Amino acid sequence: MYKPLPNYLTIRNSWIEGLGLFATAKIERGTDLGVSHILNEDYENGYIRTPLGGFVNHSDNPNVIKMAEVDTETLLEIDRFHLIAIRDIDEGEEITVTYTLYDINSK
Q1: What is the pLDDT of residues 7-35, one digit of tens each?
Q2: SS (HEC) of the chain
Q3: Radius of gyration of the chain (CA)
């Protein structure tokens, strides 16, 4: 069964802006939270945003970064981007990324 978010994340009201992603359990540094965007030129902005990418808010002191997926055989980037925890994230903490470093159309 498809689940739009991992079990350790939920969407709720954010003090930053509108809705946001929040940890429902401790998330360890280095955890791959999942795919946030998929490049696809058939769409207006050139990408499909998943629920993970659609609800993550900006912070100047983020706890995740956007990272391109890499094919392990060719070592080339492929058109999916993941959110990776750059530090331990406590239960109840909002998941944030720095938007200025988040140009989905750049690799």
Answers
A1: 999 999 999 989 999 999 999 999 999 98
A2: CCCCCCCCEEEEECCCCCEEEEECCCECCCCEEEEEEEECCCCCCCEEECHHHHHCEECCCCCEEEEEEECCCCCCEEEEEEEEECCCECCCCEEEECHHHCCCCCC
A3: 14
Pick the CATH number of 9-101 from 3.30.70.270, 2.60.120.10, 2.170.270.10, 2.60.40.10: 2.170.270.10
Compute the distance between CA of residue 91 and CA of residue 94 in angstroms, rounded to an integer. Answer: 9
